[in-house]
Amino acid sequence: MVGLGDTVMLRKPGSDTEHLWALVTDPDPASGEAVMVNLTTLRPHSDMTTILQPGDHPFVDRPTVVFYADARLVKAAQVDACLASGMGRAHAPLSAGVLGRIQAGLSVSPFTPQKAKAAFATAAAMGRA
């Protein structure tokens, strides 16, 4: 099962473009939900809270931002099902340092949805982040 620090290539519903998504918590044992964020190319209008550079992750080949506005709760089992069906593919996990930067940014970005912030805070308090 996918968990903390894992990354996957997935398309957003209705889109043909794949993005790298990162799980920033382990799944909740009761609900099976985890907090996930996506990474996208840096643009002039991007949230600049967390910027990744080439070398921070094998997928990152240009300045890349965490798109905190799209942070969401996902059922880990559904992500696993996407991987098993070929609708997504696993990528290299995040290093501890990059994961920490992304997690810190999630809490402070003004664009992170409150639901994602609350779920992350709960996960952190329970040792799942």
Residues in β-strands, percent: 25-35%
The strand count comes to: 6
Taking strands numbered 1, 2, ... along the chain, how are they ordered across the largest sheet?
Answer: 4-5-3-2-1-6
Oligomerization state: single chain
Level of helix content? 25-40%
Spatial extent as radius of gyration: 14 Å
Question: What's the story with the biggest beta sheet?
Answer: 6 strands, antiparallel
Number of helices: 3
Shape field: globular
Average pLDDT over all residues: 96
Question: pLDDT under 50 segments (min length 5)?
Answer: none
Helix and strand content put the structural class at alpha+beta
Give the arrangement of secondary structure elements.
Layout: E1 7-11, E2 18-23, E3 33-41, E4 51-52, E5 64-75, H1 76-85, E6 89-91, H2 96-108, H3 114-125
Antiparallel strand pairs: 1-2, 1-6, 2-3, 3-5, 4-5
Structural account:
With 129 residues, this protein is α+β, with helices and mostly antiparallel strands. The chain has three helices and six strands. It has helices at residues 76-85, 96-108, 114-125; strands at residues 7-11, 18-23, 33-41, 51-52, 64-75, 89-91. It has a six-stranded antiparallel beta sheet with strand order 4-5-3-2-1-6. It is globular. It starts with 6 loop residues before the first strand and ends with a helix. The mean pLDDT is 96.
